[in-house]
Design a protein that fits this description.
The complex is a heterodimer of chains A (about 240) and B (about 325).
Chain A (H helix, E strand, L loop, with lengths): L25 E5 L8 E7 L2 E11 L13 E8 L15 H17 L9 E10 L4 H15 L8 E9 L2 E4 L3 H4 L4 E7 L4 E7 L3 E2 L3 H33 L3
Parallel strand pairs in A: 4-5
Antiparallel strand pairs in A: 1-2, 2-3, 3-5, 6-7, 6-8, 8-9
Helix pairs in contact in A: 1-2
Chain B lengths: L8 H12 L15 E5 L6 E6 L2 E12 L10 E5 L17 H16 L9 E3 L3 E13 L4 H15 L1 E2 L2 E4 L6 E4 L8 E2 L7 E9 L33 E5 L3 H6 L2 E7 L4 E7 L5 E2 H33 L4 H4 L7
Parallel strand pairs in B: 4-6
Antiparallel strand pairs in B: 1-2, 2-3, 3-6, 5-6, 7-10, 8-9, 11-12, 11-13, 13-14
Classes of the chains: A alpha+beta (about 240), B alpha+beta (about 325).
Chain lengths: ~240, ~325
């Protein structure tokens, strides 16, 4: 099948017509569920769509889980059975999903100013509505926006992006077909800095190819940070005009 | 009732203060591994005992014939089981998956299975009907930090050591029979191991008094490509201490960690840096490079032990001792 699909044409165009360093079409919306949650967001990166709801900071559901001096975050990821090409119901304790939950929890426990809310808990619910590659990155971006909407104090945006290596070409922000065909890494940075919060590589890659992949992913993260920042400011402006701030 | 091991504030402060003076409690240097010992069973193939400092892990490789998955008729099966029982430490509960267990099982899965350390196509006997199912069971006997590293070494070494029974296929078409020869009849066959993945865990400590450095520093001009294997923590941030192979106490007190699996082909099989404690990207790259060096050391040790085991088994084996072949 891969021989018929040209992942990277000799002219430098990918399957969807992007160049190697172009991020997919990024659309996000904040405060999409004002009634059911304290903060919410919907993110669309290409065809990958993720909805995030944040409830909190609030009293912890399990007293034993509460940390005495800081906030604890509980992340739940629900993958819709219609999110992939084949309709498949995923069991809740699938280890891949559990790992995603645990990674996102650790990323945000450090990114949120946690010592302001001792003995409290934030519930993050992520709904993956459509999967087309870059699911973890979309989840992290969606959670950042939802936490901002909920008014949770954070040090900086947490932005995530993927980058892959096809032979010697670096490709940024990959979709499902590209992801299954080449080694790729998911990186989450703190704002526009060089501090990396999350780094995940799942397929074998030569060590020398690692540095360009990481550099590309980092610039992708910075770009996404600017896109998210624009949306947040736009949203803030509209709320001020509406008089709700 | 098993409770989480929480170190005291005193321990916390002491260890951090020692790290600012570049001292580890067991007097190792920051990128020194603990004493690693890999020993193979002399009676059974595929049973390996790994001691990493005081952490002890046993891996057992076994194989049986079964039917392959219908959507992959040319591949054999390969399962890795890494269940942690309370034998390793009282904080683990039998049957309940703690987060540590989840992390270990996922990373071992990615390091060994997904990276293709074992060639599953070589496990096929009759496509679509019969194949070998290789199973690696990891038993954690003692937890003193580095369970993941020790488990990865144990499974890799076990796969290299294991021998499966030799088989012949007789008959044609649908009346084909597979004859499994016992080890007393025919010499057992080694598995097709394509590379030897070794996992190395780096622990990050923020040695500044303030809570973890999340607010970033403005980016430097370009990424420095570090290529020295000593003192990875000297470049980039001096406020972060990077330790290789943490003991249990260091593991409980660390602020973040990164697991890198590398092999001697200078390939990185997987990287997992959890979300805790953001680290500058140059440090992560130097850690990956250091992992390759550790992988080379460990693979050399495994090969040395394998050779010793081989000679031990072949004592009295006239076929091997009376070979006319000489070393060139």
């Amino acid at each position: 099948m891969t021989s018929r699909i040209e992942i990277y044409s000799p002219e430098g165009l990918r399957l969807d017509g992007r160049r190697w360093n172009e991020v997919r079409h990024f659309r996000c919306a904040i405060n999409t569920h004002p009634v059911s949650s304290d903060g919410s967001s919907i993110i669309e990166q290409g065809n990958t769509k993720v909805i995030c709801n944040v409830i909190g900071p609030a009293e912890p559901t399990l007293r034993s889980r509460a940390l005495l001096d800081r906030l604890c975050i509980s992340v739940k990821v629900i993958v819709a059975p219609f999110s992939t090409i084949e309709r498949r119901k995923r069991p809740q304790n699938d280890s891949r999903i559990q790992e995603m939950c645990s990674s996102i929890q650790h990323v945000f426990e450090d990114a949120v100013i946690a010592h302001l809310f001792p003995r409290s808990q934030i519930d993050v619910n992520l709904y993956i509505v459509a999967q087309d590659g870059g699911v973890l990155q979309a989840c992290i971006n969606a959670t950042t926006l939802a936490l901002i909407d909920a008014g949770v104090p954070m040090y900086d945006y947490v932005c995530a992006c993927t980058a892959g290596m096809l032979d010697r070409e670096v490709l940024l922000d990959m979709n499902r077909i590209e992801e299954s065909d080449m080694p790729f890494l998911t990186m989450a940075t703190i704002g526009a800095t060089r501090k990396v919060s999350l780094l995940q590589l799942e397929m074998k890659v030569q060590f020398d190819r690692l540095e360009p992949m990481m550099a590309a992913a980092m610039s992708g993260c910075h770009h996404i940070r600017n896109l998210m920042d624009n949306e947040v400011r736009k949203h803030g402006k509209s709320r001020r005009q509406m008089g709700s701030l | 009732m098993p409770r989480d091991l929480t170190p005291s504030t005193l321990e916390n402060t002491f260890v951090l203060k020692a790290l600012t003076e570049r001292v580890r409690l067991d007097n190792r240097s920051f990128n020194q591994l603990r004493d690693l010992d890999v020993s193979f069973s002399s009676t059974e193939y595929g049973l390996v005992d790994v001691k990493l400092g005081r952490t002890r892990v046993i891996a057992r490789i076994s194989a049986e014939i079964t039917q392959p998955y219908p959507d992959r008729p040319y591949d054999g099966l390969f399962l890795i089981s890494t269940e942690i029982s309370p034998m390793a430490a009282p904080t683990f509960e039998a049957g309940r998956k703690s987060e540590d267990e989840l992390v270990i099982s996922r990373i071992i899965e990615k390091s060994i299975r997904r990276s293709g350390a074992l060639d599953t196509e070589a496990l096929c006997i009759i496509s679509g009907e019969k194949c070998w199912a290789v199973r690696a069971d990891v038993h954690f006997l003692d937890h003193d930090g580095g369970l993941l590293d020790a488990a990865c070494i144990a499974v890799s070494a076990g796969l290299l050591h294991f021998r499966r029974p030799d088989i012949t296929i007789e008959g044609v078409g649908s009346r084909r029979e597979v004859i499994v020869h016992p080890i007393t009849e025919r010499v057992p066959v080694p598995l097709a191991v394509l590379h030897v993945p070794v996992c190395v865990t780096f622990s990050f400590f923020d040695v500044r008094k303030a809570s973890s450095a999340v607010a970033g520093v403005p980016s430097k001009d370009e990424m420095k490509a570090e290529n020295d294997d000593d003192d990875i923590e000297e470049e980039g941030d001096s406020s972060i201490a990077v330790l290789v192979d943490a003991t249990l106490q260091e593991e409980l007190l660390r602020h973040g960690y990164m697991s890198v699996t590398a092999n001697t082909n200078r390939e990185i099989c997987q990287i997992q840096k959890g979300g805790e404690m953001p680290v500058e990207v140059g440090t992560l790259l130097s850690c990956s490079e250091a992992a390759i060096i550790v992988a080379e050391k460990v693979t050399k040790l495994i090969n040395k032990r394998l050779k010793e085991d081989e000679t031990r088994r072949n004592v009295g084996n006239l076929l091997v001792e009376s070979r006319a072949e000489n070393d060139r």
